[in-house]
Sequence to fold (295 residues):
Amino acid sequence: MTITLKEQYSIFPVGMGAMPLSVAGRPTEQESITVIETFLELGGNFIDTANVYCLDDSDRGHNEKLICKSLKEVGKIDNVIVATKGGATRPDGGWGLRGGHPKQLRHACEQSLINLSSSELSLYYLHGPDPAIPLEDSIGELVNLKKEGKIRNIGIANVTIEELKLATNLTTITAVQNRCNPFCKGDFKNGLIDFCKLNKIIYVPYCPLGGWLDHVKLASSDLYVHLAEKYQVTSYLISLAWLFMKGDYIVPIPGMDKKDHIIMNFKSLDLKLLSEDIARIDAFPDLYYPKHLEV
Ligand SMILES: NC(=O)c1ccc[n+]([C@@H]2O[C@H](COP(=O)([O-])OP(=O)(O)OC[C@H]3O[C@@H](n4cnc5c(N)ncnc54)[C@H](OP(=O)(O)O)[C@@H]3O)[C@@H](O)[C@H]2O)c1
Fold:
């Protein structure tokens, strides 16, 4: 019997996407620490990071080190699930998935342990299948790292349903992280989300507000403006409420780099959308298709 991450740790339903704290345009270190502290003070306990949430390959580990410093300052280093990832690269500040070779993954995982000042990573994702490396080899190395006690739970990101099925044949996959929001609903249509539910895998939608670059487009769409007025909330809460109402094994990780975002986004838990409005969001036109090979 598999124990899911949610059962092990009682995950708070709104996770924190920490990427905006470390990429271009990032806040100062002190501002970032305040954002993380606010998240924890309000009851958040699930933070999403990656070794490549940074400016470029020379800045690797920035986000992990920042989170570690914040957790030490608030004295919560052991009570928070920090999910991190290996397998991606940031050549010249761009994004790539050429880090899935077993040796690269081992090095990345060991470096993340140092950055997070931890002896075991609660949840470690393959950031995405490396097109040059058989998925079996990448997952196989994560299994080795788990056997050595360096990883407690294995996750996988940016996967198709076929890749997820292959991975689950090799080991227990605790969480899947894919792009999912009203602009990108492929995983609801291709069976991947149903597969997660059936197999007690936590589904972690990334870019839940529309994406780092597209969130404003979604929030200012006619439908969202109408729904925000109807429910008397900011339009940013609509996507989160829509995701919560799809199932409690879905844990969105909105990117948050401002204290106010956290206070606001936690309010989405009180927002219950009518089924007719869920159907209208379901019918919203997709902008992205589920290739899941982008990071
Ligand atoms: N596995 C992967 O390959 C992958 C890829 C991308 C992201 N992720 C993860 O998923 C997380 C979320 O994705 P994301 O950050 O790209 O996109 P997102 O969550 O869809 O959008 C985040 C942006 O929305 C704005 N925002 C958040 N709450 C708001 C509020 N209440 N009111 C107004 N604006 C608000 C912020 O923008 P401003 O700062 O402009 O205000 C924030 O940067 C990331 O942080 C990262 O942890 C994973």
